[in-house]
Amino acid sequence: MSAAEAERLRGTRRRSDRDRFTVGAALIRLVVAGYLGGSPRAVEVDRSCDRCGLQHGRPRLPAAPELRTSLSHSGERVVLAVARHAEVGVDVEILTMSKDPGTLARRILSEAELDDWTRLPHHDRRPALKTYWTRKEALVKATGEGLRTPLSAITVSPPSAPAALIAWPGHPGVVGRTGMRALRGGEGYVAHLAVVGLPRPEVVERDAGPLLARGGWTP
């Protein structure tokens, strides 16, 4: 890890969060080294925030600006996405939910989405809400907007349909240039990918377990 990452790790209280952060830091170096050649230790990762400059922003690669990355973790899942010459965002979420789904739905769903969501049977609402959530989170990570944009301002396809960005007022150029894909989150998880600049991205998914065990990877 870089000195900034190590400092951030020391300031993380929960062991589970420290473990996920450590795995994410290892994954990005192992995968990027596979693209560039050389040692994972030599991969420089810059996490400078666009707004404040602190090291909690999305990972960037000063030595390989053509490669864009995004990391997400939840529960026992850590997901890394890498794209070349296109902005990428990824989000994974465990399906359990402690908050009242109705309150969360009114906060993150657009009017059209909320109308569709309230028509669902009650047992389908929680997983549907996580589907909406991960699609939108992946999108705002890809654009760099983060939570500066209310998720309720974005409309995506319903959970019963393939992932797609439908509308985002004030961002007309993003709608036609963005591709979305559902990822294999595994039982009890939902995950989505968004790529701005590739409306129909070719997505290859790999299990990170063997990669971490081998300590190396070749595309």
Automatic annotation (TrEMBL):
Membrane-crossing residue ranges in chain numbering: 21-38
InterPro entries in alphabetical order: 4-PPantetheinyl_Trfase_dom, 4-PPantetheinyl_Trfase_dom_sf, P-Pant_transferase_sf
Domain 4'-phosphopantetheinyl transferase: 88-167
A single GO molecular function term of this UniProt record: transferase activity
Entry keywords, A to Z: Membrane, Transferase, Transmembrane, Transmembrane helix
Claim: Membrane is one of the keywords in the record: yes
Family: Belongs to the P-Pant transferase superfamily. Gsp/Sfp/HetI/AcpT family.
PANTHER family to which the protein is assigned, alphabetical: L-AMINOADIPATE-SEMIALDEHYDE DEHYDROGENASE-PHOSPHOPANTETHEINYL TRANSFERASE, PHOSPHOPANTETHEINE TRANSFERASE
UniProt name for this protein: 4'-phosphopantetheinyl transferase family protein
